[in-house]
């Protein structure tokens, strides 16, 4: 990403490097089992599924960057709601794809505004606010969709599953999206404000940062990305389901942490999300490939994740 | 406090029993459904079946009330508290789909001591005072392999998709599958992943392990709710679709029908019908009516075959699960079968 001189030295100093190193190592161990066979296909699958977690990971990252206590727990419910509403509105017709996208994003905007209203007007801590709103959203999704799986329009299904030379098209789009969001975080006034608030909210306010609006935007953005994820995911997996968002709660937070961002906020990077997402998928694949039992698998997943986080933070300390 | 409340409701129950015994009737009895989870299509269908059967029963005056209650967080502590509340509210019987087979035993025992009938189904409890309507999940796993043996006498490599790790249903089905494979060594389980009974998770897990598996997978044994995801993963990997055992979900059946019409694809599908909640309702009603009902009942699972596919798909609503609702006579049959 940085083509300037001293590239290697700069690279090694990056906090997100470890997620990529870990992902590569896990991939190598996996294809060691098969003697090199299927290595490319494993990567294709990893990119395919990492895409969805990166989308929600970006939103979560912006929220977490805002500082201690900021986290969005309503992501899974928003994914489910947006998926259910969008597939129902599109009703398998190709012509309504754009309408479906707009509706899914609108769900996100509504959820984001609601979350922030709870936080700021009712002065509820973000964790509690987003947790309780997630119950309301999930109930809405259940009442609205009744668990009915409506097939996505064929064109949307084709787009979300399309590949170019073994690389999912959607993954390429989300890599571009991540690059844009990294630039927004590093180079725009808004991104610097988010970081400043996370480092010291009081100092940021005194420096003239519009704290309220910046936080509001971050929460809405997180919900909008969750809506986008729900829309794409329902296209990819052949319809929405009530449990489709479930796994993205812990995943979105884990991506932020494993990606080398500070969970206490103020120090974040977007590239790490991709490394972490690939890593998480590949770990499960590796343990499945070696045929470990469920207990051992959870245990090793936990240990590997701890190891990566420790490595990443040790890196930072000796920098 | 609880003991006091217990004895009060005990008294209440005894009074009610005293009045009702002459009539041998359940018109003044209240039945509650305690349910631990509602977040998937199976549970939604289960709750709808409950409404469909119990509302007319209440209107017809067979029982006084049949109210469903679902906990929000799928947690044992929450459901234990819910059971205690139901006892305090004076329900005569609790029909229970439990979050855990043993962790609710304390609350169930308290309910029994307070004179409340507890009938557990699907997610059953081990507490001896409760009735259990169980599915022979192990047999279901065995049947899957036996079906494959029938279709593929030569055997081959199979992929196993398991459910949610740590849940006894997952262990039971998997045990049945592994036992049947041990008896039929022409089959070999080359990979095993956890799909958590969820299409999206199954799809991700299968997509991850497929590249490392041999090309000649002849069958996929599943636990229900994961077949469609597995089919999607095979398609995305550009592999020929093996015989994927389905789990009665509408999307699975619809996919099967599509394949059947296109290329004569054959498989089978089995799962426990969500309407089993209504069977539990009738069993509870019969117990309240003073009938002698054995504590352990077995409900047959609902199986869909090539011949019955079209009809099952027609009667299964979009997004639902192939279902049957049970009548009081069905319950009687199940009870009679258990007495033999």
List the SSEs and their pairings.
The complex is a heterodimer of chains A (319) and B (340).
Chain A: H1 7-12, H2 17-34, H3 39-65, H4 75-90, H5 97-120, H6 126-145, H7 154-161, E1 163-164, E2 167-168, H8 169-187, H9 189-199, H10 201-206, H11 211-236, H12 248-258, H13 271-289, H14 294-318
Antiparallel strand pairs in A: 1-2
Chain B: H1 2-20, E1 30-35, H2 41-59, E2 65-70, H3 76-88, E3 93-97, H4 105-113, E4 117-121, E5 131-134, H5 137-151, E6 156-162, H6 168-183, E7 187-194, H7 199-209, E8 217-221, H8 227-236, E9 243-244, H9 250-263, E10 269-271, H10 276-288, E11 296-298, E12 302-304, H11 309-315, H12 328-339
Parallel strand pairs in B: 1-2, 1-3, 3-4, 4-5, 5-11, 6-7, 6-8, 8-9
Antiparallel strand pairs in B: 10-12
Fold and architecture overview:
- The complex is a heterodimer of chains A (319) and B (340).
- By secondary structure, chain A is an all-alpha fold.
- Chain A has one domain: Orthogonal Bundle (ABC transporter involved in vitamin B12 uptake, BtuC).
- Chain A is 74% helix and 1% strand.
- Chain A contains 14 helices and 2 strands, in the order αααααααββααααααα.
- Chain A has helices at 7-12, 17-34, 39-65, 75-90, 97-120, 126-145, 154-161, 169-187, 189-199, 201-206, 211-236, 248-258, 271-289, 294-318, and strands at residues 163-164, 167-168.
- The longest helix of chain A is centred in the N-terminal third of the chain and has 27 residues, at 39-65.
- Chain A starts with 6 loop residues before the first helix and ends with a helix.
- The model of chain A has no long low-confidence stretch (mean pLDDT 88).
- By secondary structure, chain B is α/β, with parallel strands linked by helices.
- Chain B folds into 2 domains: 2-135 and 273-300 and 323-339, Rossmann fold, CATH 3.40.50.2300; 137-271, Rossmann fold.
- Chain B has 12 helices and 12 strands.
- A 6-stranded parallel sheet of chain B has the order 2-1-3-4-5-11, with helices on both faces. In chain B, strands 7-6-8-9 form a 4-stranded parallel sheet. In chain B, strands 10-12 form a two-stranded antiparallel ribbon.
- In chain B, helix 3 (76-88) packs parallel to helix 4 (105-113), helix 5 (137-151) runs parallel beside helix 6 and helix 9 (250-263) runs antiparallel to helix 11 (309-315).
- The longest helix of chain B has 19 residues, at 2-20.
- At the A-B interface, helix 2, helix 3, helix 6, helix 13 and helix 14 of A face helix 2, strand 7, helix 7 and helix 8 of B.
């Amino acid at each position: 990403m940085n083509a300037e001189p001293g590239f290697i030295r700069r690279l090694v100093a990056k906090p997100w490097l470890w997620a990529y190193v870990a992902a590569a190592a896990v991939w190598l161990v996996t294809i060691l089992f098969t003697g090199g066979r299927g290595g490319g296909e494993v990567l294709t699958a990893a990119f395919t599924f990492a895409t969805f977690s990166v989308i929600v990971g970006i939103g979560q990252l912006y929220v977490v960057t805002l500082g201690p206590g900021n986290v969005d727990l309503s992501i899974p419910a928003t994914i489910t709601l947006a998926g259910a509403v969008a597939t129902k509105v599109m009703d398998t017709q190709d012509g309504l794809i754009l309408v479906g996208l707009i509706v899914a994003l609108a769900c996100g905007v509504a959820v984001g505004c609601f979350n922030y209203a709870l936080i700021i007007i009712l002065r509820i801590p973000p964790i509690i606010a987003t947790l309780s709103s997630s119950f309301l959203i999930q109930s809405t999704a259940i009442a609205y969709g009744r668990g009915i799986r409506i097939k996505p329009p064929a064109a949307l299904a084709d787009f979300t599953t399309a590949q170019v030379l073994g690389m999912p098209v959607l993954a390429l789009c989300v890599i571009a999206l991540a690059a844009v969001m990294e630039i927004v975080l590093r180079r725009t006034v808004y991104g610097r404000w988010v970081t400043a608030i996370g480092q010291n909210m009081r100092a940021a306010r005194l420096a003239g940062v519009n704290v309220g609006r910046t936080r509001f935007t971050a929460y809405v953005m997180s919900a909008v990305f969750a809506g986008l994820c729900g829309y794409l995911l329902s296209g990819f997996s052949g319809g929405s389901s009530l449990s489709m968002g479930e796994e993205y709660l812990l995943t979105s937070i884990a991506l932020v942490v494993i990606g080398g961002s500070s969970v206490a906020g103020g120090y974040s990077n977007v590239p790490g999300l991709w490394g972490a997402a690939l890593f998480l998928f590949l770990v499960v694949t590796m343990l499945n490939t070696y045929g470990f039992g469920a207990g051992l698998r959870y245990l090793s997943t936990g240990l590997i994740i701890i190891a990566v986080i420790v490595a990443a933070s040790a890196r930072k300390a000796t920098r | 406090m609880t003991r006091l409340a217990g004895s009060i409701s005990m008294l209440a129950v005894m009074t009610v029993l005293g009045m009702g015994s002459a009539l041998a009737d359940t018109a003044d009895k209240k039945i509650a459904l305690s349910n631990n989870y509602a977040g998937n299509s199976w549970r939604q269908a289960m709750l709808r079946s409950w409404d469909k059967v119990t509302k007319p029963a209440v209107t017809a005056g067979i029982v006084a009330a049949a109210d469903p209650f679902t906990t929000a967080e799928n947690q044992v502590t929450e459901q234990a508290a819910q059971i205690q509340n139901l006892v305090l509210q004076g329900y005569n019987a609790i029909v229970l789909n439990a979050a855990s087979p043993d962790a609710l035993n304390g609350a169930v025992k308290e309910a029994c001591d307070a004179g409340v009938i507890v009938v557990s189904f699907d997610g059953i409890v081990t507490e001896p005072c409760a009735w259990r309507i169980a599915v022979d999940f192990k047999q279901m796993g065995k049947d899957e392999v036996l079906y494959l043996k029938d279709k593929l006498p030569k055997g081959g490599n199979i992929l196993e998709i398991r459910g949610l790790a740590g849940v006894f249903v997952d262990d039971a089905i998997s045990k049945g599958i592994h036992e049947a494979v041990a008896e039929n060594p022409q089959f070999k389980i080359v990979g095993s992943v956890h799909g958590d009974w969820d299409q999206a998770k199954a799809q991700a897990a299968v997509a991850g392990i497929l590249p490392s598996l041999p090309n000649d997978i002849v069958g996929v044994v599943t636990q229900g709710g994961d077949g469609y995801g597995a089919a999607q993963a095979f398609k995305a990997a550009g592999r020929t679709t093996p015989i994927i055992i389905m789990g009665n979900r509408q999307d699975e059946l619809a996919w099967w029908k599509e394949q059947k019409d296109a290329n004569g694809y054959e498989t089978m599908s089995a799962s426990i019908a969500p309407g089993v909640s209504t069977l539990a309702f009738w069993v509870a009603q019969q117990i309240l009516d003073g009938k002698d009902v054995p504590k352990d009942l077995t409900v047959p699972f609902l199986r869909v075959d090539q011949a019955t596919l079209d009809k099952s798909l027609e009667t299964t609503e979009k997004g639902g699960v192939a279902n049957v609702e049970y009548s009081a006579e069905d319950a009687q049959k199940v009870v009679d079968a258990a007495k033999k």
